[in-house]
Design a protein that fits this description.
By secondary structure, this protein is an all-alpha fold. The chain has 9 helices and no strands. The N and C termini lie far apart (71 Å).
Length: 215
């Protein structure tokens, strides 16, 4: 029984370390956070952290993969399993990402990265590869499907994908930097819905007003 309790406790260590690191990164930034700070916040010794993560950079990457990366994998699986309309898939993906940006405490990670990317280019490259490129590829897949099905007009999928993702940067900056200066809470849900409606109108195949059919 004691061995089972110890095993459960050991398995709980990594999430506890990540939660402690998230708080430290949010309060101090990446550069000023030390492994000692994370250990103190988690209530463990610094040596214990190295049993799970070999560096502070590894802790940051694990946080990104655990939260944003895993959510993106779930969304990708839903898209791949669906044979529905591309417009519905865009609504699904943008809605899920908006919910994450509005509610998750992990939203501080991109803010920390934006502030310190010049000092830590390896982390910026990691974020580009693991988060941004995967998200853009997901949007491109949906847009290409919509074009192939005659649902969307022919557009450059790469440009359109970046337009799909752009509001999330606004949400990150507003929630973590500028929102505290608003007189009233910002309507993130309204922003998301306006974005979806505007995007779908722009992608829709124009109809011939004389025939009522798409050209």
């Amino acid at each position: 029984m004691a061995t089972q309790r110890w095993t459960r406790r050991k398995e709980a260590r990594a999430p506890e370390i990540l939660e402690a690191a998230l708080i430290c990164f949010a309060q101090k930034g990446f550069a000023r956070t030390r492994m000692d700070d994370i250990a103190a916040r988690a209530g463990i010794t610094k040596g214990t952290i190295y049993l799970y993560f070999d560096s502070k950079e590894a802790v940051f990457k694990a946080l990104a993969r655990q939260s944003i990366g895993e959510r993106m994998t779930e969304i990708l699986a839903q898209v791949n399993a669906s044979d529905g309309k591309a417009a519905d898939l865009l609504r699904l993906v943008i809605g899920a990402m908006s919910d994450f940006a509005r509610t998750s405490d992990r939203i501080v990670l991109p803010r920390v990265l934006l502030a310190e990317a010049g000092t830590f280019p390896e982390l910026a490259e990691f974020w580009r590869r693991e988060i941004i490129d995967r998200g853009l590829a997901l949007f491109e897949t949906i847009i290409r499907r919509g074009i192939a099905q005659g649902e969307f007009r022919p557009v450059d999928p790469g440009h359109a994908a970046r337009l799909c993702a752009a509001p999330f940067l606004v949400m990150v900056l507003w929630r973590t930097v500028f929102g505290k200066f608003d007189d009233t809470p910002y309507d993130y849900e309204g922003l998301s819905e306006t974005h979806i409606q505007t995007l779908l109108r722009g992608l829709a195949v124009p109809h011939d007003p004389l025939s009522g059919a798409a050209p």
